[in-house]
Design goal:
Chain A has about 180 residues and is mainly α. Helix content of chain A is about 75%, strand content about 0%. Chain A has 2 domains: about 90 residues, Four Helix Bundle (Hemerythrin (Met), subunit A), CATH 1.20.120; about 35 residues. Helices cover about 65% and strands about 0% of the residues of chain C. Chain C contains 13 helices and no strands. Classes of the chains: A mainly alpha (about 180), B mainly alpha (about 120), C mainly alpha (about 350).
């Protein structure tokens, strides 16, 4: 077993274990901690796939921005472990069974598809600079230019959404005052 | 991938060295906790209530706008690296991209969301 | 005096023992990690002493004078004292979160040094996503701040942690965008490539008018805010928040936050020296001396800021970033792109 394989299994195990621990925690901040561990392990997996840019992006955007947003939300809503125990909006028993079963079947289907021998013509070899930032740039700014520009519109919509929400909250407060 | 082995080693070495320092200091430091010492600090008074209280949501708005601009900055990295080879076309693309988002920033500004307090 | 030669010799010595190559690499990297840990500890001790001396002289005092020549042994004594201090964990804290916050803070500050070029060839690993990696790792600092604030179950700590995170988050984008302006010219994310693209003094990005100085000033302002230093030290405002997020920490856990803070200060200066002032390059002296000279000069600038400017108000702090620094850095990036395209200073 080479070092690369050892690292792969280790990172994969940590990623899954971190994700499982995350949903088992009652304390939301501890959940976020396990999510960080899981994200780091996933970044290692991306680096092993030579997708360096995606790996760095995962850390910057998820660990750096979205998790901070989660933490702020937790602190603003003041979510506490005990409050989850007697909450009213528990999913029904049917949903508890159906959703995991459907999800499990999906995973099995995907694994089956991937495990099938590659059909003729399916590329299995990758270019030498695969996953590098330069290659991502070449693809992004030539072939996928239009989706890229659309992203900026999407981000603009996100800003407008944030502004509208902030304004609505402020309006409420002024009414109360 | 060999160059990334260093990152992994540094991750574990960093955690290991910190834990070792904690362990080492444990050997030579006193440990004498009692109830009053283990109390939370609050201006030498008994703490009043819990400190996990609800916070003002302005933190949330800034974090939300930050997520948007962070994603944008990440998109700019490939552009910056490859710009020398991509030429004028890429420059115009990027100016459009930035201007659209700066427009969003000015919208938030004019609606008074960027005001703290 | 060539340090790289010593490392090469030691590496070959390790190889001659007949161990498998993988193991040799792991041992070499692990010893590099331990060595950098030692170097950083020494640098942090020096910076603490230096900060005290600089502040003292700015205020026409002497600072520590009695322990050794100009008090040089003072911080060593402080460190030994800190090692012996009782480590109090208040009974109301969230234990795992409270424990891991200082570990994450320090490890995040430490891992950056994988790809900081200390000199010509003096780099642990020249990652090809170098600066992007550094930005990714430093984001963990925000998480550690929030964990420390929340885990402490203390009102000051939580408020300090929240403020800290909001501040770091606000200044992150201008900092990244000002770094991008340099990358446009360097055409690479690798730290070594960035240094090598400024081989002569007129090639330093700082001197590429007009984009260079603008990028540098936005960078250094944002970096000051990211390291929570005056005039942006609201999260640690001693007078109102006692010490901010680390108020409940004592003993070695506190020391880790303290160490991380000074290491981060050195890191942002080292990145500034690498990106804008040609890194290790310079005549006559060995490369690592040049790197240290430039970095410490920038550290001095940060200290100078601290003992000259008063603290900002929180609304000024946030609005300065979003309404001034961010538009300026974006405009500067477009300017840099245009300069690169039209061939100004494109030597």
């Amino acid at each position: 077993m080479t070092l690369e394989v050892v690292i792969f299994y280790f990172a994969a195990a940590v990623a899954v274990a971190g994700a499982v621990m995350m949903i088992l925690q009652r304390n939301p901040v501890a959940s976020v901690m396990y999510l960080v561990i899981s994200l780091v392990a996933q970044a290692i997996l991306y680096v092993q796939l030579q997708a360096l840019f995606i790996g760095a992006l995962l850390i910057i955007v998820y660990a750096g921005a979205i998790l901070v947003l989660f933490l702020f939300v937790i602190m603003i809503l003041n979510l506490r472990g005990e409050e989850f125990r007697n909450e009213k909006h528990r999913p029904g028993r049917a949903a508890k069974i159906i959703i995991p079963v459907v999800f499990f079947l999906e995973v099995v289907a995907i694994i089956k598809q991937l495990a099938a021998p590659p059909a003729a013509g399916r590329a299995t070899e990758v270019a030498a600079d695969f996953g590098s930032v330069e290659m991502v740039a070449g693809r992004l700014f030539r072939e996928y230019l239009f989706p890229f520009e659309l992203t900026s519109i999407l981000l603009l919509v996100a800003i407008v959404g944030a502004v509208v929400m902030a304004k609505r909250d402020k309006g409420k407060k002024e009414e109360e005052a | 991938m060999e160059q990334y082995l260093a990152v992994l080693i540094f991750l574990f070495a960093g955690i290991g060295l910190v834990l070792f320092t904690f362990f080492f200091s444990r050997l030579i430091r006193p440990a004498n906790p009692y109830k009053a010492k283990n109390q939370n600090y609050e201006c030498a008074e008994k703490p009043i209530g819990d400190s996990w209280i609800k916070f003002n949501n302005r933190f949330y708005i800034f974090a939300l706008i930050f997520v948007v601009f962070d994603v944008e900055a990440v998109f700019l990295f490939p552009w910056a690296v490859a710009f020398g080879r991509l030429g004028l076309y890429a420059l115009i693309e990027m100016i459009i991209f930035i201007v659209i988002l700066i427009f969003g920033l000015f919208y938030a500004w004019k609606r008074g969301v960027l005001k703290w307090v | 005096m060539e340090i790289t030669g010593i490392f090469k010799y030691l590496y070959e010595l390790l190889q001659s023992t007949g161990l498998p190559q993988v193991l040799v690499d792991i041992i070499a990297l692990a010893s590099a990690a331990v060595m950098i840990f030692g170097v950083l500890a020494v640098i942090a001790l020096f910076l603490v002493w230096w900060e005290r001396k600089v502040s003292a002289h700015i205020q026409q005092r002497f600072g520590p004078m009695r322990t050794g020549w100009h008090g040089w042994r003072q911080t060593i004594a402080d460190a030994v004292k800190l090692l012996q201090k009782e480590d109090i964990t208040p009974s109301t804290v969230d234990r795992p979160v409270f424990f891991w916050a200082p570990v994450i803070a320090f490890v995040a500050a430490f891992m950056v040094y994988v790809t900081i070029p200390f000199g010509d060839g003096l780099i642990v690993s020249d990652l090809n996503i170098g600066i992007l990696f550094i930005i990714a790792i430093t984001t963990f600092t925000i998480i550690s701040l929030l964990m420390a604030g929340w885990g402490s179950n203390n009102k000051y700590a939580l408020l300090g942690g929240m403020r800290s995170a909001a501040q770091v988050v606000s200044y992150e984008v201008p900092m990244v965008v000002s770094v991008l302006a340099v990358i446009v010219f360097a055409g690479s994310l690798s730290m070594v490539d960035i240094v090598q693209s400024q081989a002569k003094i007129y090639k330093w990005y700082f001197f590429r008018l007009p984009f260079g100085p603008i990028a540098f000033f936005t960078y250094i302002i944002a970096a000051t805010a990211e390291t929570n230093r005056t005039p942006f030290d609201l999260p640690e405002a001693e007078q109102e928040l006692v010490a901010g997020f680390n108020v409940e920490y004592s003993g070695m856990k506190f020391a880790m936050f303290f160490l991380a803070e000074f290491v981060n200060m050195f890191t942002v200066s080292a990145i500034g020296a690498t990106l804008f002032f040609g890194g290790w390059q310079g005549p006559l002296l060995p490369s690592w001396v040049w790197f240290l000279v430039k970095t410490f000069a920038l550290v001095f600038v940060l200290m100078w800021f601290r003992w000259t400017y008063p603290r900002l108000r929180v609304d000024q702090l946030m609005e300065f970033s979003w309404k001034f620094l961010l538009p300026v850095s974006f405009a500067n990036l477009i300017l840099a792109g245009w300069m690169k395209y039209s061939g100004w200073f494109n030597w």
